[in-house]
Amino acid sequence: MEADHSLLNLIKELYPICRSITGEGVRETLRIIQKRIPLEKYEVPSGTKVFDWTVPLEWNVSDAYVMDRAGKRVIDFQSHNLHLMSYSAPVRRRMSLEELRPHLFSLPAHPEWIPYRTSYYKENWGFCIRHADFEQLSDEEYEVVIDSTLQAGSLTYGESYLPGEVSDEVLVSCHVCHPSLCNDNLSGISVAVRLAETMAARSRRYSYRFLFIPGTIGSITWLAQNEQVVPRIRHGLVITGVGDAGSVTYKKSRQDNAEIDRAMAHVLRHSGEAHTIIDFFPYGYDERQYCSPGFNLPVGCFMRTPHGQYSEYHSSADDMDLIRSESLAQSYVHCLEVFELLEGNRVYLNQSPKCEPQLGRRGLYRAVAGQQENQSRELALLWVLNMSDGRHALLDIADRADLPFGQIQSAAEALVEAGLLKEHRRPENA
To answer: What string of DSSP letters covers 15-41?
Structure first.
């Protein structure tokens, strides 16, 4: 796959920003995204009840450090924002190493990496440090400063809505709450932005809704604030961790066999590339909120190496060196192919169902595009005619025939032009 450097460039631009589930870092991120796609920003006040949760106080930080007696910052938020545990309460005091030690986090197995830690819903504070630096700390008094605020504000999220011919929607969701972590989830943001750019420039049957939200509390908040929209969601993807060198992993929706699940399985199977499809489980990213039993939306999760299964996960090693332009480009293409399949997955009715119509005199073999052998093209035509009974969509036919969706779609288009097929609305109980 040819590298797409524009996908990588957006990650580079977003990488330095200190993000959390609320605060100016999220707003800055959305402003950058807004330069590329139309984006509405929403502010939900702290204290707002969203089902069993409450929108938390807004957190912002301007500086944080641990300074030794010589005036050296042995831990410095300004050098890397992962040094500060996200949502750390303000602190300004002197303390011994013994007092400080319970508030320090490191990775002994990876002594040169800084871990990523949070304390969103329990007031606390802490610093993350390279283990190699931790071992060099002397038993002395340190000045500890966290110049942060936890106060009434709001949770911010962004939404890009692209209306289509119908109000039925395709939902794309990615989280914008992580600080300087590239694969988790600047890669998902970058691919989602590119998909929004592409779909905005095309005619669309479906409407598309792209959400850029804080993880967990963001999807809960969006669902609580937009229950009237939920019935319109027909397909959905959470996109995350799509920039590493691993092969694609797709986590199915709770429905297990939703159209989005079958579409993704079809695209990946016919890509010829290594991939893994896993069943839904109630842990992971925001798919677990969209797939909660009260909503049970057809939303799967598209990723490469699953979270926690690569050593760089939630550490400073999740940097620009981890990201592959080719992986980003390939992830974008797979998701776009799924959207194209959903757009083209129509139901047709054979207009000459009694025996096979004579196809040769209609020139249909020549009318079907592609480089397949004549026999394969003929087979696609016959499969479409045979199964276009008003109950089977083109994806059903492609899977039954074990042929790429594009070939089945091309055959259907040729048959429509010849007057042998007519689009048919799928029965509600089908």
So the answer is: TT----SSSHHHHHHHHHHHTTS--EE
